[in-house]
Design brief:
Layout: H1 6-33, H2 36-62, H3 77-105, H4 112-134, H5 141-170, H6 175-202, H7 212-220, E1 225-237, E2 240-249, H8 255-270, E3 274-281, H9 284-288
Parallel strand pairs: 2-3
Antiparallel strand pairs: 1-2
Helix pairs in contact: 1-2, 1-4, 2-3, 2-5, 3-5, 3-6, 4-5, 5-6
Length: about 290
């Protein structure tokens, strides 16, 4: 079962401090050098601080033990945090693209050397954060949202460095908004996937990596199972799936064995650990048919 751990909380806390520290430096540098590419990167860092803080709170609450009233604890708060982070990313992305458009119409001079130095420092910070979050991002949609924030920053830093080099040697200041626009466009697919997956879980749709037809087919292959119907699969949180189904067998004396076999198959093949299975006996008219 893929669940966040207390170690993930420490990782998020460290990345939050790291990002917040450099955010201040980059915001000041972006204003002083008049660079949109650098300010767009700093803008992502502003959203990162908020996003990481939201993720940290969600992970902290999600680590609390379950209660009789809340059998899964507060784990779904992680998904709410991921959705909020996704919406914040949408706002930041729209802001970057809009400002890039304005500067394409009226390019402004940029202090490329100062921009280059600040962007290089930002890239180092981002790469450290990416390395730290990469493993935990595979376990939690919430942490993946923070991971996307940091990846966005890394892209911004790379773009700002490239723009700084070009402007330093050529004086072609139009490259600054072009890089900002490119970064904004590149972020759209990742933001879309994040929003889609978080909404999918909140709406209790079937998990993206689990197919209803495939699960039903495998259930029907379980020994002595004649049919499977009323199958429902949904996600509680990242990697925590639930299922309910009715299985039809010929003789109820085999019910316990079928139940164990079905649950074992669901666990091994689909990672579904929470399954409510109702065993039904095949009716005589159905047997004749």
């Amino acid at each position: 079962m893929h669940m966040v751990t207390r170690g993930d909380r420490k990782v998020l806390g460290f990345v939050l401090v790291l990002t917040a520290t450099y955010m201040v430096i980059e915001l000041i540098g972006g204003v002083l050098t008049n660079s949109l590419a650098l300010l767009s990167d700093a803008g992502h860092m502003v959203s990162d601080v908020g996003g990481l803080a939201i993720s940290l709170v969600a992970v902290t609450l999600a680590c609390r033990p379950p209660t009789p009233e809340r059998p899964f604890g507060l784990r779904r708060l992680e998904i709410l945090a991921a959705l909020i982070n996704g919406l914040v990313l949408v706002g930041i992305d729209v802001y970057i693209i809009y400002n890039a458009y304005l500067r394409l119409l009226a390019p402004q001079e940029v202090q490329s050397l100062g921009m280059l130095g600040i962007a290089s420092g930002g890239l180092v910070i981002n790469l450290i954060s990416v390395k730290i979050l990469s493993r935990a991002s595979k376990r939690s949609l919430n942490i993946r949202s923070a991971f996307i924030h940091v990846i966005a920053d890394a892209l911004g830093s790379v773009g700002a460095i490239a723009a700084g080099v070009i402007m330093f040697f050529t004086g072609f200041y139009l490259v600054d908004p072009l890089v900002g626009l490119l970064i904004g466009i590149l972020l759209i697919p990742s933001i879309w996937r994040l929003l889609k997956e978080s909404l999918n879980i909140l709406l209790e749709s079937c998990p993206i990596d689990v197919g209803v037809l495939q699960v039903k087919s495998e259930l029907r292959k379980v020994r002595r199972v004649k049919d499977a119907h009323d199958l429902h699969i949904w996600s509680i949180s990242s990697g925590i799936y639930s299922l309910s189904v009715h299985l039809v067998i010929e003789n109820m004396k085999h019910g316990t064995g079928v139940l164990k076999a079905a649950k074992s198959m669901l666990d091994e093949k689909f990672g579904i650990h929470h399954a409510t299975i109702q065993i039904e006996e095949l009716c005589e008219d159905e047997m004749i048919h």
